[in-house]
Amino acid sequence: MKYTLITKDGRAKRAEVQTVHGTVQTPLFMNVGTVAAIKGAVSTDDLKEIRTQVELSNTYHLHVRTGDKLIKEFGGLHKFMNWDRPILTDSGGFQVFSLTGLRKIKEEGVYFNSHIDGRKIFMGPEESMQIQSNLASTIAMAFDECPPHPATREYMQASVDRTTRWLERCRAEMARLNSLPDTINKNQLLFGINQGGTFEDIRIAHAKTISAMDLDGYALGGLAVGESHEEMYRILDETVPYLPENKPTYLMGVGTPANILEAVDRGVDFFDCVYPSRNGRHGHVYTNQGKRNLFNAKYELDARPIEEGCQCPACRSYSRAYIRHLLKAKEMLGMRLCVLHNLYFYNTMMEEIRDAIEEHRYAEYKAQKLAGMTETKNGND
C-alpha cells in the first residue's frame, strides 16, 4: 500500500491510497455490504454507477453463513461477488462482542454461539486473520474487543491491554498467511484499532502503542456506541493527533452526514455506516435540505424527484409520489431506489469534501452543508 497525502486544510486530510485492487481517493465512505451484498437489492454494477470506491463486508457473518472456506474455493470475495475494487473486511469483533449472553471472553479469544443456528464457535486473533485471508479482502481489520458503553476505567484498561496483545498476534498471523503459497491475496493489508471508550488518557496511550507498530492503517473503534456526539468529537480531537498522519485514519461505524463532516475536520479519512442503506429501506432519504421520510402523506402527489438536481438512478427517473407508492405497497423497488439514492448522496458528499479540502475552503463548505441540512427539519420542504 502507498498512502500519499495530497494536501491538508486545517486538520482535514486529502489523500490517495494505492492498493493491490486499485487506487482510492480519501476522504471516502465505504458502502456496507455485510454479507457480500448491499441490503436493498443493490448490485456491484450499481455500486460502480454510483461511484463507490470501497465495499465493506463482515468476517463474522460470512464465516457463519456460506463460509469463508467456500468463498476461498471461488477465488476470494472479489470473484465471488464480482467486484474488482478494494474490499475492507471487518474482523467480526464488534459482532461477536454484541452477542452478550452468547459469548465468553478469554485471553485466547472468544467462545460464542452462532446467532443463526446456535452452534458453538471460537474466534481469536489467528482465526479472524485466517477467515479474512480466505476472503482475500484488500484490507483486514485486527481482531479487537469492543468494550461496552459505559464501562469502568478498570474494565476499559484491561480490555485495551488485551486488544493490544491480540493485535500483536494478528500481525504475526497475517505475516505467516501472506507467505503461504495458496494465499489468494499475499498483499493483504492490516489495520489496527484504537480503543479506550471515552477515557482520553487510555485512548492516547493506546494510540501511541499501536502507532509504534507501523501498521498499514489505523481505526478508531468503540465510538457511536451510546456516547453523545460531543463526547465522540472530543475523543477524536484528543486521539487522532497521536495516530500517524501518513497512514489512513478510519472511524468505524460512523455515521450521519454531520458526523462525517465533523470527523473529516478532525483528520479522519475512512468511514463506513449502515445508515444510508438501513434508512433507505425504511423510506428515509438524505438530501442537502435534510432527511425526508417518503412515507409522509405530503409526498402523495409530489411529482418532484427525491432531490431536485440529483443525478442518482432514482432521481433521474422517478417521483417522490411513485417511490412513496412503492414503499406503501411494500414493493422491493421502492427500497432499492431509496438505498441507491442514499449511497449516491454519501458518495457524492465525499467527492465534494475532497474538492473543498483541495481548494482550502473546507470550513466554509462544512458550515454551508450543515446549515442546509436543517431546512427539512424546519419545515422548508
TrEMBL record:
Protein's pathway = tRNA modification; tRNA-queuosine biosynthesis
Task: Output the SUPFAM superfamilies linked to this UniProt entry.
Answer: tRNA-guanine transglycosylase
Which positions does UniProt annotate for Zn(2+) binding? C310, C312, C315, H341
Q: Which InterPro entries match?
A: ArchSynthase1/Queuine_TRR (IPR050076), TGT (IPR004803), TGT-like_sf (IPR036511), tRNA_ribo_trans-like (IPR002616)
Please indicate which superkingdom the organism of origin belongs to. Bacteria
Q: Name one GO biological process term.
A: tRNA queuosine(34) biosynthetic process
Q: Which Gene3D superfamilies match?
A: Queuine tRNA-ribosyltransferase-like
Name the needed cofactors: Zn(2+)
Question: Which of this chain's residues are annotated to bind substrate?
Answer: D90, S91, G92, G93, F94, D144, Q195, G222
| The UniProt record lists the keyword Glycosyltransferase | yes
The record's cofactor note says: Binds 1 zinc ion per subunit.
Q: Which residues form the active site?
A: D90, D272
Its Gene Ontology cellular component terms are:
cytosol
Entry's Gene Ontology molecular function annotations: metal ion binding; tRNA-guanosine(34) queuine transglycosylase activity
Q: Which residues form a coiled coil?
A: none
Top-level enzyme category: transferase
Reaction(s) catalysed by this chain, per the record, are:
7-aminomethyl-7-carbaguanine + guanosine(34) in tRNA = 7-aminomethyl-7-carbaguanosine(34) in tRNA + guanine
Q: Which residues form the tRNA-guanine(15) transglycosylase-like domain?
A: 11-371
Q: Where is this region: RNA binding?
A: 253-259
Please state the Enzyme Commission number of this protein.
2.4.2.29
Q: Which HAMAP family match?
A: Q_tRNA_Tgt
Function field: Catalyzes the base-exchange of a guanine (G) residue with the queuine precursor 7-aminomethyl-7-deazaguanine (PreQ1) at position 34 (anticodon wobble position) in tRNAs with GU(N) anticodons (tRNA-Asp, -Asn, -His and -Tyr). Catalysis occurs through a double-displacement mechanism. The nucleophile active site attacks the C1' of nucleotide 34 to detach the guanine base from the RNA, forming a covalent enzyme-RNA intermediate. The proton acceptor active site deprotonates the incoming PreQ1, allowing a nucleophilic attack on the C1' of the ribose to form the product.
Task: Name the family the entry cites.
Answer: Belongs to the queuine tRNA-ribosyltransferase family.
> What quaternary structure, including any partners, is listed in this protein's UniProt entry?
Homodimer. Within each dimer, one monomer is responsible for RNA recognition and catalysis, while the other monomer binds to the replacement base PreQ1.
Any idea what this protein is called?
A: Queuine tRNA-ribosyltransferase
Native species: Hungatella hathewayi WAL-18680
